[in-house]
Specification:
7-stranded parallel sheet; globular; 7 strands; Rossmann fold
Length: 249
């Protein structure tokens, strides 16, 4: 188990990509902190499903990443329980499906809602976790972005722009926190989750445009996270597209 005795926080990990990441890290020996703000029952189920080997200690902390005070309280609890943090995965997210030509529907309130979780929330989590990350023998931050950051095709204009900001922030943080803390982003293409159940026509269209002829799975993303935090130790400041070649055009 390559992550034995390491501590990992995965925000937004009650289901989907976040859950798969949490499961993968726990399988490799990490002590995993599950986080969610609304899907509490799902988070508790995820916590109960995490593998426990060699005395691993997992926990669930309810916290809204959009609220700085709640983030601060979460980090305080982690510090009291573990004392350090090796891995921070900024995965929490939200969006609204608004066609790009429907600008009036993309209100300032919706824009801010997406921004506060994806970009500002990721920064605040990083900022608040920094003392614990510095205490770890080696630390990694992984920001879950999206190929929408590069293609400008996504659930709405704000989502695309904010994910692009997250990729840029990843590079800035990598410079600022080197050499002790590595920071990378992962940009998935459309991924098989509960969110896209029933989108058969759209899924078929996306598969036809993807060279590997399938959608991403949550496990594809989780495997990439594990590779970055375990063996790919000379990589920092990078954005890894996990898209089956979708961005090749």
């Amino acid at each position: 188990m390559k992550l034995l005795n390491e501590v990992a926080l995965v925000t937004g990990s009650s289901r989907g990509i976040g859950k798969a990441i949490a499961m993968r890290l726990a399988k490799e020996g990490a002590n995993v902190i599950i986080n969610a703000s609304k899907s509490i029952k799902e988070a508790e189920v995820t916590l109960s499903e995490l593998p426990i080997k060699a005395g691993q200690k997992h926990c669930f902390i309810k916290s809204d990443i959009a609220e700085p005070k709640q983030v601060s309280q979460m980090m305080k609890k982690i510090n009291e329980e573990y004392g350090y943090l090796n891995i921070l995965v900024n995965n929490a997210g939200t969006t609204r499906f608004i066609k790009h030509n429907q600008l009036k529907r993309l209100t300032a309130k919706i824009f801010d809602e997406i921004y506060k979780i994806h970009l500002r929330g990721s920064f605040i989590c990083t900022q608040q976790a920094l003392p614990m990350l510095k205490r770890a023998k080696h630390a990694n931050i992984i920001n879950i972005a999206s190929i929408a950051a590069m293609t400008a095709i996504g659930s709405n204009i704000a989502y695309c722009a904010i994910k692009a900001g997250l990729v840029n922030m990843t590079m800035s943080l990598a410079r600022a926190l080197a050499p002790d803390i590595r920071v990378n982003a992962i940009s998935p293409a459309l991924t098989e989750t509960e969110l896209i159940k029933g989108w058969e026509e759209y899924k078929t269209e996306q598969i036809s445009k993807t060279p590997l002829r399938r959608l991403a799975t949550c496990e594809d993303i989780a495997d990439t996270v594990f590779a970055l935090v375990s063996s790919l130790t000379y990589i920092t400041g990078q954005n890894i597209n996990v898209d089956g070649g979708r961005t090749l055009g």
